[in-house]
């Protein structure tokens, strides 16, 4: 046994040595853990900074730009930026949209025809309790699931009667713009009818009073788009949907742009041309920003008009027939191009058949997203057709079947060979052939010289069509006759019958139409003077009962309208209670 003092000293020494040993182990362990943490942090930082293989997607939707209203289509309007972007990219010269705002936007957002979303008729009115059906998965939702940051600037026009319909509820991380189809370019006010007026500029889901500087909307939306690009990391994928209000009426533009077009005598055309020039300048600023902030080299830009031009508001679709709101080529064949360093073949014209529904599967696939089999898309992935010049996978386009639109007085089942009631407005493209039934809409050709000092209502030099009055079915070979001058319906009845059968097949897949009556609760005076949602989420059961009522009315009308066909009664497919 050690003496007591020696024992204590010994224990002290052992304690010190043990402490040093434990500290050494702890220090070594901490050092290893710290090194691992530092290494993991570096790896994470490298992952964040590593450029994504997914391309940035910039989609530009312009409003009411006519087929001829771009420099490279022979216009007197100066569009140097659009001409350069198209010339160094791929011009889409067989590209189709819908004849009105909401229909084109709904098909872009869903990749589905109007007959499959219930939006067959007209546009979504600001006073209607209606919007893009919530069961449809939108393009921004798909891209967001694939890792994209999603932003929208500009015109929505897909309904807003409840918050679930708003852009930020349909896949966009941010939204700045208008909910309605049109409005004042400076004050952002819109009157739908006397006593139904309100403010329409929104940031997210609220009125953007504080952000409103009274700036012309084309410039304001461009500035906002540039701020989105400036604040985002270009090494992460972004989807920017920039939907300009221009060049939709009202015809408003800063005076400095008007000075360029003093030689145009017609006031509407002069203002319209100035608005297009302002739009072209906006595209220049956007392109420079994409380069400045590091997006350009890994970017796909798509430019598209939502429908044809409106001659009464200065637009021109020459040499195409018809105008906005019609199913003639002037209403549905659009200005469009793709600009991207990622294109395999640049500086080309793409004549493959392409429709606005095709952007959904094309962009989702390009963005490395997934397409679900149960989505029943009507669009096709056309990237190889655009980028490599391959044939289009698309063979036909259902332009629409509208069971509510005014019926053709001379339309009948007899004129449709017992296959189709030609009183119903419908339009179909199959290969080279295009079929129209019912009332296709305003059908004149409006040549450039129309825009003289004369009032447009008194156009004496329009090419008026008189020989087709009383008709309810037309057939054209669009490849050989893109201007729809030679109706071949009587020469080729077998082709007419074949296409009517195709229309019938499509109509069997149509869902009930959504076109509810005006809801006076939508009046902005009940919402602080702002156009915005007026239904609450608690109204869901009411909405569902309304939809059931619409379907029920359609079914009742269908039963009532049994058609006698030989000795056999055949029910007519009737949606929205619109059969006649």
TrEMBL record:
GO molecular function terms listed in the Swiss-Prot or TrEMBL record: metal ion binding; sulfuric ester hydrolase activity
SUPFAM superfamilies, A to Z: Alkaline phosphatase-like
Family statement drawn from the similarity comment of this UniProt entry: Belongs to the sulfatase family.
Cofactors demanded by this protein: Ca(2+)
InterPro entries: Alkaline_phosphatase_core_sf, ARSB, Sulfatase_CS, Sulfatase_N
Annotated transmembrane regions: 12-33
Pfam (any one): Sulfatase
Chain residue ranges for the region called Disordered: 531-572
Ranges where the Sulfatase N-terminal domain occurs: 55-366
Biological source species: Electrophorus electricus
Keywords: Calcium, Glycoprotein, Hydrolase, Membrane, Metal-binding, Transmembrane, Transmembrane helix
Protein's recorded name: Sulfatase N-terminal domain-containing protein
Ranges annotated as biased composition (Basic residues): 557-566
């Amino acid at each position: 046994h050690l003496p007591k003092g020696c024992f204590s000293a010994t224990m002290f020494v052992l304690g010190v040595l043990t402490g040093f040993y434990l500290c050494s182990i702890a220090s070594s362990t901490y050092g290893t853990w710290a090194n691992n943490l530092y290494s993991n942090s570096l790896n994470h930082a490298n992952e964040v900074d590593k450029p994504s293989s997914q391309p940035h997607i910039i989609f530009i939707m312009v409003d009411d730009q006519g087929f001829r209203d771009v420099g490279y289509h022979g216009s007197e309007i100066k569009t140097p930026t659009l001409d350069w972007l198209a010339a160094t990219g791929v011009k889409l010269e067989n590209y189709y949209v819908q004849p009105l705002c909401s229909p084109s936007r709904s098909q872009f957002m869903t990749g589905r025809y109007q007959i499959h979303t219930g939006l067959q008729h007209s546009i979504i009115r600001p006073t209607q309790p209606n919007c893009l059906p919530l069961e449809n998965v939108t393009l921004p939702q798909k891209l967001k699931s694939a890792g994209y940051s999603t932003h929208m600037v500009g015109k929505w026009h897909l309904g807003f009667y409840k918050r679930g319909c708003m852009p930020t509820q349909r896949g966009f991380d941010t939204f700045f713009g208008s909910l309605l189809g049109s409005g004042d370019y400076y004050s952002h006010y819109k009157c739908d009818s006397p006593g139904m007026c309100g403010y329409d500029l929104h940031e997210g889901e609220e009125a953007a009073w504080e952000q409103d500087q009274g700036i012309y909307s084309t410039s304001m939306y461009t500035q906002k788009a540039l701020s989105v690009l400036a604040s985002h990391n270009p090494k992460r994928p972004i989807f920017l949907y920039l939907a300009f209000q221009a060049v939709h009426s009202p015809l408003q533009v800063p005076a400095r742009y008007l000075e360029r077009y003093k030689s145009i005598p017609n006031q509407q055309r002069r203002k319209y041309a100035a608005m297009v020039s302002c739009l072209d300048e906006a595209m220049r600023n956007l392109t420079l920003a994409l380069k400045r902030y590091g997006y350009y080299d890994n970017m796909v830009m798509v430019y598209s008009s939502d429908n044809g031009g409106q001659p009464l508001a200065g637009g021109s679709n020459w040499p195409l027939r018809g105008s906005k709101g019609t199913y003639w080529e002037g209403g549905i064949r659009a200005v469009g191009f793709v600009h991207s360093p990622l294109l395999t073949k640049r500086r080309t014209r793409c004549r493959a058949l392409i429709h606005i529904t095709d952007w959904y599967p094309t962009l989702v696939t390009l963005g490395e997203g997934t397409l679900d089999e149960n989505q029943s898309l009507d669009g096709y992935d056309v990237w190889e057709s655009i980028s490599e010049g391959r044939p289009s996978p698309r063979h036909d386009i259902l332009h629409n079947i509208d069971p509510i639109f005014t019926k053709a007085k001379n339309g009948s089942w007899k004129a449709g060979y017992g296959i189709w009631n030609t009183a119903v407005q419908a339009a179909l493209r199959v290969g080279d052939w295009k079929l129209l039934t019912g009332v296709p809409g305003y059908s004149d050709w409006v040549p450039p010289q129309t825009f003289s000092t004369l009032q447009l209502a008194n156009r004496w030099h329009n090419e008026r069509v008189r020989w087709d009055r009383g008709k309810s079915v037309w057939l054209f070979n669009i490849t050989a006759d893109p201007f729809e001058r030679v109706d071949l319906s009587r020469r080729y009845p077998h082709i007419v019958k074949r296409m009517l059968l195709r229309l019938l097949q499509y109509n069997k897949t149509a869902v009930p139409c959504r076109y509810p009556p005006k809801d006076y609760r939508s009046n902005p005076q009940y919402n602080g003077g702002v156009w915005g949602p007026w239904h609450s989420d608690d109204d869901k059961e009411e909405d569902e009962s309304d939809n059931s009522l619409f379907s029920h009315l359609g079914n009742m009308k269908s039963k009532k309208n049994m058609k006698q066909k030989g000795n056999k009664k055949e029910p007519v497919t009737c949606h929205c209670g619109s059969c006649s």
